[in-house]
């Protein structure tokens, strides 16, 4: 005995492909702007193809209208195929989260339901049955955070009273063996023909000889002969054995209105591996009673046949049982900064994978580098460091970008020179950020206190402050590059670095020659008596003095062959990377190139020299080793001990001797 | 395919087209019950690639509900009650379902095919590499960690302009060389090297993403 329960339909489920959001973002940014008028879109679905998973109504990149076309007022339905039945829909995208939540969902649903109702009454739904599954999507696309809030509605006209279920069983149990074979064959033919593959509602006629034919629903009249079994078939996305899918709701409404049938036998068509599966498909019988509610009010007895009486509608998609919108974050695949970061990481990882398995990427990305000087050397060193994955870079320079700078100083452009010129430290930081947004770059506009340069008395406090600042800067970084343009400006930094045992790399340019070297460990760095490598000043015999006063113009500006700075900067950074990968780090002995020293072959990055001197006039380069000097003006222990750490001592060196 | 290319394990882009057609025919005939590969033309309609999409994988991973709620950790918006009627059944899939898309795209600079893939869940949210690894069968995980030729990177898809995962191609020609040299004489006689290139290639590459080539196809090698 059949139970008199109502038909319970399984709700449609939505699935939005990432490509839809990408395309929509681009449409919004390039074409729509703040225009929030509704956009016609196309959804795609197919009959259920898996016994345990329902199919979804899917949105893809192709669901949106093409950017080059003019806005069409009719629903844009792009072409479908057997796996993609196109269904018209509409998108309401708001410009703020508040307006998203404030949308009148009831009336939006009602408006779409009305369209379906109209299509049923005008007969359009018979010609183009996909309109029965018209849907609605509201969204808020947050294009700063790349998150998308959205909510689907699948409007279904509510039968009042609801349709009752007389019978529901597997199609294989309903049809005889002969009939089942014929029905499967007919359905497969329907599904394989490009004309009908994407038509989701159809009729199945089975004649008394068990021969089945599948027809378009507009051919309903031709199926009216005695002895024929007539089933209303539809692509059912749902896989459940006891519930028909959502599209049946509006299909029943159509059948009731157009053909005034009270008893409807339906086929929930489902597939497996591309063929009709009558074990998964369901056949059922529903009873529709003439809706009383509205008709009673209007009293014209027409009930549903009255076009003017729009029934109620339901259909907002429930989200895991809750009535809330959904949210998806696509920052990882859309945010350009994140994409740049992962691309940069990829490059380094490739290097490690293919050529240098011992590459220590963590050490590089966590290293903090201080660059004293943001000129020809500073700009190139900064770029090279970023290429190696160093993210934290601080540049110190008190100069402004001059008109001649952009040619040789690779972080600056003409714009930086205008209006007197930006401060180099600031301009450099901005430039680094434009190259790689994830860099953590800081600029310090500050002069480096130099011995031997006269300091007016009113400037004393400032100079002392600068000393303190420099001390703090050296302290808070792991490696220091001395890239200034005078000898004496390297003196105080060398002393400070030696005091704190920081990795220090010096690069200095002549007209056609260069020196790149790493300073040895500081004098207090270890207890053993081993010989330290020298610093920049160790081979000097005189104290650094003012080298810039009393010289001709060309001696004051460092004139060098343009090729030198990039070469020297590159070597300086490679030297740093070498130190980082050497097991002894700053304490590593100085090695010579082409040496027969077996130790050098073991390091994957090659030899780690102490000094590299190169000459462009010879296109030659050589490596040297120099030991520290006990009477070095910069890094000897006696000198440093003298300094202690109070400012009055500083005064004695800095102020006029 | 020129013997020069063959000996290097590479193939030209025209040969790739030929190999792809043969592969589709082969696969769709022998493995008709499997999802079918299709040839997709790029928007310029000049180049194309092989595509196998919407491969469904039922995951054993737990459903986690964070994705459904509006906005990461923000306002808890009080929604107006929405009309729901008794005729509506709201069903939730019992297990998390993951979908995979595979594309085989020719790489001009390395002159070999490259496998691009991506994975996502019901909500369209892309899966991370570590989540994908959880889906892979044991032999794939082993292949990934052991082999020095398998390196998964995330790069922009050449036609779709979105990040997809891919197996980096720089090792491909090396091991393709080995595969082809193994049977030099046989191939020279039958002359079907190009047609079999993709089957051979996919038999190795597929292992890494848990895609097994049906035995019937392998028999031809």
From TrEMBL, chain A:
Annotated Pfam families: ATG7_N, ThiF
GO cellular component: phagophore assembly site
Predominant cellular place of this UniProt entry's protein: cytoplasm
InterPro entries recorded: Atg7, Atg7_N, Atg7_N_1, Atg7_N_2, ThiF/MoeB/HesA, ThiF_NAD_FAD-bd, Ubiquitin-activating_enz
Record SUPFAM superfamilies: Activating enzymes of the ubiquitin-like proteins (SSF69572)
GO terms for MF: Atg12 activating enzyme activity; Atg8 activating enzyme activity
UniProtKB keywords: Autophagy, Cytoplasm, Protein transport, Transport, Ubl conjugation pathway
Domain spans labelled Ubiquitin-like modifier-activating enzyme Atg7 N-terminal: 9-334
One GO term (biological process): autophagosome assembly
Compartments (UniProt record): Cytoplasm; Preautophagosomal structure
Keyword Iron: no
UniProt domain THIF-type NAD/FAD binding fold: residue ranges: 351-585
Catalytic machinery residues: 557
Family label: Belongs to the ATG7 family.
Functional note: E1-like activating enzyme involved in the 2 ubiquitin-like systems required for autophagy.
Description of how the protein assembles with itself and partners: Homodimer.
Protein name: Ubiquitin-like modifier-activating enzyme ATG7
Organism expressing this protein natively: Quercus rubra
From TrEMBL, chain B:
Gene3D superfamilies (alphabetical): 3.30.1460.50
InterPro entries: Atg3/Atg10
UniProt keyword terms in alphabetical order: Autophagy, Membrane, Transferase, Transmembrane, Transmembrane helix, Ubl conjugation pathway
Any one GO CC term of the record: cytosol
GO biological process per UniProt: autophagosome assembly; autophagy of mitochondrion; protein modification by small protein conjugation
Secretion signal, residue range per the UniProt entry: none
GO MF, any single term: Atg12 conjugating enzyme activity
Keyword flag Membrane: yes
Transmembrane segments: 196-215
Membrane in keyword set: yes
Family: Belongs to the ATG10 family.
PANTHER family: UBIQUITIN-LIKE-CONJUGATING ENZYME ATG10
Protein name, UniProt field: Ubiquitin-like-conjugating enzyme ATG10
Species, as recorded: Quercus rubra (Northern red oak)
């Amino acid at each position: 005995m059949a139970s008199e329960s109502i038909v319970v339909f399984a709700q449609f489920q939505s699935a939005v492909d990432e490509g839809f959001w990408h395309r929509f973002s681009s449409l919004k940014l390039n074409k729509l702007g703040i225009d929030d008028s509704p956009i016609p879109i196309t959804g795609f679905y197919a009959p259920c193809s898996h016994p345990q998973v329902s199919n979804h109504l899917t949105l893809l990149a192709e669901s949106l209208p093409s950017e080059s076309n003019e806005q069409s007022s009719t629903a844009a339905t792009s072409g479908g195929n057997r796996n993609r039945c196109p269904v018209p829909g509409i998108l309401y995208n708001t410009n703020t989260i508040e307006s998203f939540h404030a949308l009148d969902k009831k009336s939006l649903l009602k408006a779409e339901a009305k369209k379906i109702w109209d299509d049923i009454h005008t007969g359009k739904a018979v010609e183009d049955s996909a309109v029965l599954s018209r849907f609605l999507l509201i969204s808020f696309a947050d294009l700063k955070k790349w998150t998308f809030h959205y909510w689907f509605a699948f409007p279904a006209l509510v039968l009042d009273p609801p349709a009752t279920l007389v019978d529901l069983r597997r199609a294989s149990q309903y049809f005889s063996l002969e009939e089942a074979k014929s029905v499967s064959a007919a359905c497969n033919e329907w599904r394989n023909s490009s004309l009908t593959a994407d038509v989701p509602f159809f009729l199945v006629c089975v004649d008394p000889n068990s021969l089945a034919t599948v027809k378009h629903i507009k051919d309903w009249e031709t199926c009216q002969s005695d002895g024929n079994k007539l089933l209303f078939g539809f692509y059912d996305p749902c896989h459940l054995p006891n519930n028909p899918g959502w599209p049946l709701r509006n299909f029943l409404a159509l059948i009731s209105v157009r053909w005034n049938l009270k008893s409807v036998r339906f086929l929930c068509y489902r597939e497996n591996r591309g063929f009709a599966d009558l074990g998964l498909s369901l056949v059922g019988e529903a009873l529709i009673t003439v809706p009383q509610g509205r008709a009673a009010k209007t009293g014209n007895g027409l009930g549903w046949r009255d076009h003017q009486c729009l029934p109620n509608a339901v259909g907002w998609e429930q989200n895991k049982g809750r009535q809330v919108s959904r949210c998806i974050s696509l920052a990882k695949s859309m945010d350009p900064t994140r994409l740049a970061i992962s691309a940069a990481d990829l490059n380094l990882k490739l290097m490690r994978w293919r050529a240098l398995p011992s590459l220590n990427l963590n050490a590089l990305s966590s290293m903090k580098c201080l660059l004293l000087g943001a000129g020809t050397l500073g700009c190139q060193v900064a770029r090279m460091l970023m290429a190696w994955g160093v993210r934290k870079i601080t540049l110190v320079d008190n100069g402004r970008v001059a008109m001649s700078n952009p040619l040789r100083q690779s972080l600056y452009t003409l714009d930086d020179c205008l209006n007197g010129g930006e401060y180099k430290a600031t301009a450099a930081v901005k430039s680094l950020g434009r190259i790689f947004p994830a860099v953590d770059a800081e600029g310090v506009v500050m002069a480096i206190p130099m011995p031997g340069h006269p300091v007016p008395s009113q400037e004393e406090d400032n100079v002392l402050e600068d000393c303190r600042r420099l001390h703090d800067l050296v302290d808070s970084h792991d490696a220091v590059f001395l890239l200034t343009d005078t000898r004496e400006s390297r003196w105080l930094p060398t002393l400070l670095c030696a005091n704190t045992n920081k990795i220090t790399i010096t690069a200095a340019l002549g007209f056609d020659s260069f020196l790149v070297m790493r300073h040895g460990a500081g004098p207090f760095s270890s207890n053993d008596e081993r010989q330290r490598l020298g610093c920049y000043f160790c081979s000097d015999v005189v104290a650094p003095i003012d080298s810039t006063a009393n010289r001709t113009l060309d001696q004051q500006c460092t004139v060098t062959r343009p090729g030198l700075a990039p070469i020297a900067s590159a070597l300086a950074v490679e030297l740093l990377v070498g130190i980082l990968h050497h097991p002894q780090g700053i304490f590593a002995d100085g090695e010579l190139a082409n040496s027969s020293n077996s130790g050098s072959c073991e390091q994957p990055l090659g030899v780690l020299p102490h000094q590299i001197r190169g000459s462009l006039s010879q296109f030659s380069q050589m490596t040297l080793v120099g030991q520290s000097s006990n009477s070095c003006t910069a890094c000897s222990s006696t000198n440093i001990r003298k300094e202690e750490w109070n400012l009055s001592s500083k005064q004695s060196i800095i102020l006029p001797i | 395919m020129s013997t020069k290319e063959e000996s290097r394990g590479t193939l030209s882009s025209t040969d790739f087209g030929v190999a792809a057609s043969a592969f589709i025919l082969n696969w769709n005939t022998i493995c008709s019950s499997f999802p079918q590969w299709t040839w997709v033309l790029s928007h310029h309609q000049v180049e194309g690639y092989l595509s196998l999409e919407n491969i469904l994988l039922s995951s054993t991973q737990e459903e986690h509900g964070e994705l459904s709620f509006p906005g990461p950790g923000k306002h808890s918006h009080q929604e107006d009650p929405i009309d729901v009627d008794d005729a509506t059944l709201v069903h939730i899939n019992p297990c998390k379902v993951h979908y995979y898309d595979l594309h085989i795209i020719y790489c001009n600079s390395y002159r070999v095919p490259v496998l691009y893939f991506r994975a996502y869940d019901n909500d369209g949210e892309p899966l991370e590499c570590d989540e994908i690894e959880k889906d892979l069968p044991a032999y794939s995980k082993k292949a990934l960690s052991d082999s020095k030729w398998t390196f998964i990177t995330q790069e922009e898809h050449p036609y779709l302009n979105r990040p997809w995962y891919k197996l980096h191609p720089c090792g491909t020609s090396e091991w393709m060389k080995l595969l082809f040299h193994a049977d030099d004489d046989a191939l020279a006689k039958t002359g079907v090297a190009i047609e079999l290139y993709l089957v051979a290639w996919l038999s190795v590459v597929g292992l890494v993403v848990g895609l097994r080539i049906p035995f019937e196809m392998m028999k031809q090698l």
